[in-house]
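Thread: EamA domain-containing protein, structure

OP (GT): Posting the sequence first so everyone is looking at the same thing. Length is 293 residues per the record. Can we get the structure tokens written out before standup tomorrow? I want them in the notebook alongside the other entries.
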Amino acid sequence: MKLSLSKNVRRFLGYLFSLGVALLLGSAPTAIKEVIANLSPAGQLFMRCTIAAIIFTPFIRNLNTKLIRDGAILGLLLFSIYATEAIGLLTSSANRASFIFGLNIVFVMLFEFLLNKRLSTRVATTCLLAFVGIGLIILESGEPLAGNFWLLTCAFIDATQIVALGVFAPRHPPASLAAIQFWVIALLSLLWAAPTLTEQFEVVKAHPETLGYIAYMGIACSALAILLQTIAQRWIPSHEAAIFSATEPVFGAIFAFFFLGESFGIVGFVGAAMVLAGVTRILRGEEQREKVG
């Protein structure tokens, strides 16, 4: 029997699911940090995405050339996101990574305005505010710049993936598209991890707690997060879903504090506040623009 939900219930669930996605993705840097203490970035990525791919495989429908092509493109982008995030976290703290990754929203809006050749003063100043905030966070950390560079690259690629997903997603069943993406990531990460893959499995045997983190990332941070996001954006406008995603760095900092003991100093808190202010200002401008449109 088909379940019928009222508009208000769907809207409430859309908000709840969007908040859940932010919570799950916010926990990812902490989980990755725990895993790469033992496993290589390539090894954890292969195991994580293979789990997600297996979960979605039974739901593949209407397999065709266009689905494979679009899924492969998105999968390549997603592989680049996961890989750069893991490499960056080798030398960067999880709480700072969460805020650097939060720049993806700023990049998305910047892409949109540049493509439309309408870079307003509001967008320019807001982006500057967010980037200065990141500069303060990086300055306080004293961590190697290479890790922060990888995380900035991660945020940039993620913004590209969001734009591409907006083009490809309406063409295909969500679960089918997700399955192709995750199998592409699993294959690429297998090639990346191949030289040391046997050693990686031995590490998992020696540190069984690592398997729990990998399962969590594959099931919750990958498969479940994508499923909730897909459902949520059917029920609420994109600008409202994006507002909830702005809470992801906050969740990331909370997880890093409780599980890793990480925290900001005064300069870091100022920088984090500037990033959140910049992201919120971008989203409020987008909301007003959609209402006018």
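GT: Both are above now. Quick notes for whoever picks this up: The longest helix spans residues 7-35. Residues 10-291 form one domain.
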